[in-house]
Design goal:
Elements lengths: L1 H19 L4 H4 L6 H8 L2 H23 L1 H8 L9 H45 L3 H6 L2 H43 L3 H46 L1 H6 L3 H53 L5 H43 L21 E9 L7 E10 L4 E5 L6 H8 L7 E6 L2 E2 L5 H6 L1 E4 L10 H6 L7 H10 L3 H6 L17 H15 L3 E5 L7 H15 L3 E5 L11 E6 L2 E6 L1 H5 L4 H9 L2 H7 L1
Parallel strand pairs: 3-8, 3-9, 6-7, 7-8
Antiparallel strand pairs: 1-2, 1-4, 4-5, 9-10
Amino acid sequence: MESNNKISSKNNNVSVKAANKKPPLAAIKRLSSLRMVFGYMWSYKGLLTGGLLAMLISAGFTLAIFRSLEWLIDGGFSASDPAAIRPYFIAVFVAIAILAVATFFRVLLITLLGERVVADIRKAVHEHLLGLSPAFFESNRPSEIASRLTADTTLIQTVVSAAIPIALRSSIQALGALVLVILFKPLLVGGILAVAVLIMLPVFYFGRKVRRLSRFSQDRVADVGTMANEAYGGIQVLQAFTREPEEISRFERCVESAYEVAKKRILARSWLVLIIVALVYGFLNYSLWLGAIAVMLGNLTGGQLATMLALGLLVASSMANISEVLTILQRAAGAAGRLSELLAIQSDLPVAQDPVRLSASRKQPVQFDNVSFAYPTKPGIWALQNFSLDIAPGETVAVVGPSGAGKSTILQLLLRFFDPQQGVIRLDGHDIRTLDTTELRGRLGFVPQDTIIFAETIEANVRFGRPEASPEDVRAALQAASCAEFVDALPDGMNTYLGERGVRLSGGQRQRLAIARAILRDAPILLLDEATSSLDSEAENDVQQALDRLMKDRTTLVIAHRLATVRKADKIIVMEDGAIVASGTHAELISHAGLYARLAKLQFTDTEYKQAV
């Protein structure tokens, strides 16, 4: 058993580290993480092709307008008849019109492509995360994961919709301008290329720093969101213990940490902009100086000087744009890397390649055979040890014991949120690891101890148990769970919006909705984890009657602290420290001096206890 535990712990640790570890510096220096984004872009060849075509047309006509300066100035301005210059300007108007239309389609198609790519990435990441085991979410903060789905994908959207198009358009314009310069004044090419090299050197140097600091900055911003989410979610506890000043101070330290990282990133980026501006405008000024001398000496015409400066400006500005885009791409590479990490994480739960199909029968026994289990976050600390339990079809088995005895762990293993390090869990005689997980969980109706209510309507929350259910079925489930009275009292009835985590309902009302959800699911096996713990005595009695009707002819596993709710169980299992210490009926267990009798004496009145004995 010890060796099995080590193997499982190692596997679980690998998955957690994969989610948390920072990539090595060598990986940060590359933009290879963006390959994932390009893969999604390639899925929309129509938008991509149309956008690139529009980009080529707009870049080509931009170059044409710049190149026409020589003809306009030297040919048009020297003409004595005003009508002679009309064709030049009409041709430019036509070029501008085509440029405007091409720009419209470029912006439209590329922006749509960016939004489509981001939507697909968000869906893919979310779908992948929902397939991971709960062990991942125990070791990673959900709010930080949510930040990756929002902030990181928004940055990628900026890259696809703006940064990459700017880089491509600028590259086309710079290359086209260089070709025109070669045809026009070949001697200028050396100077332009020298300036381009001078611009790119600081880009690569400062770009690495910006990329690394951007990754750290995104992590710190995620920390800020996580802290705020925790504070708002626990606002009542925070205010009840008057911890506002400490929380404000803690949040300020987190914000300042994010600011310090951002300040370093901004400083590196500012140095980059300073160098680029100085080189670009210095080059233009030097080119204008040389051109002015050439015009004075008669080596250049005014039109040729204007064209030379315009093409030089186009090359320099394009190179500046490319350098600016590279810094954005470097930030996006960090975001894409974080998302790629999420997509690369594999669930700790192996998927059966050829799953066994369960029979259609609702009479399926459940068996725990010598099961031992330790949570991934607590390796070596056994939640269950050599646990064996047989539950016959239609039988109601209650599990009781002190907190931390391992009661809820039994349900989590049966739902296959985790796999045991040792032993086998069987449903209808089949190892649940050989079953399709969706089919397995489809046979189970679950009411958790911590009630989860979604930010939806009452009907949507109950229908979560069976989406195809009719409104009449939903209404019947609410009635059976003693929810109808408070639901009817709400202004919108079943269409009442409940807010995040059901904040508009009391704890007891939320728990009754969770029971209605399980009732609607109509699964052959019921798993009740403290299903009535948040109810008052009257509501508990009503719900218990509903559960009694629901449990008829069903296999039921009940986890309970309150022994009054399990007295009618066919069999009661008493647990302590992850092991079974006693079993029997309520009458059998209470008649013996043991843990169950001690718990009963604490919970029942003297009269109730004497009657039971």
